[in-house]
Amino acid sequence: MARDFEYVFVYGTLRRSFQNHRLLSHSPCLGGAGTRERYALYVGEYPFVVRDQPVSPIIGEVYKVDPATLMVLDALEEHPQIYRREKVPVVLDDGREIEAWLYFYPRPGGRLIESGDYAGNA
C-alpha cells in the first residue's frame, strides 16, 4: 500500500528562516538531521548538493510532505531538468535513521561550504 506522504530532507532555502520555507508551512517538521553519507554543498546563485564529492555530511531538516507539496517542491527545484531528487539515508537529531528525498545538482560550482551547513554560512 502506498503512503500518502514522503520525507524530504532540505538543506538550503527551504529551511526555517529562509525565503522558500513558506512552501513547507503546512508540512510537519521531524527536526534537524544530517545525511549519513558525505556530499559537497556549494553556494552559487542558490545552494546545491553534489553527490559525487564526499566532503562532509549535509546538515538540514526533514519534513513529512503530501504529494501536492512534493509536486510544488519538484517545480521549485526544476526536477528532473535541473536538480535531481533521490532518496538517501539521513540521521535525525534524535538518532533515528530514515530515508528521505534530497535534491542533487549535477555538477560543482560556486563556493564550497566544507561544513555542509548552509544556515551557518549563508
Automatic annotation (TrEMBL):
Annotated GO MF terms: gamma-glutamylaminecyclotransferase activity
One Gene Ontology cellular component: cytosol
Family matches, as SUPFAM superfamilies: Gamma-glutamyl cyclotransferase-like
InterPro entries, per database record: AIG2-like_dom, GGACT, GGCT-like, GGCT-like_sf
Coiled-coil region(s): none
Enzyme active site: 77 (proton acceptor)
Gamma-glutamylcyclotransferase AIG2-like domain boundaries: 8-118
PANTHER family reported for this sequence: GAMMA-GLUTAMYLAMINECYCLOTRANSFERASE (PTHR12510:SF4), TROPONIN C-AKIN-1 PROTEIN (PTHR12510)
Family from the record: Belongs to the gamma-glutamylcyclotransferase family.
Name the record gives this protein: Gamma-glutamylcyclotransferase family protein
Species annotation: Desulfocurvibacter africanus subsp. africanus str. Walvis Bay
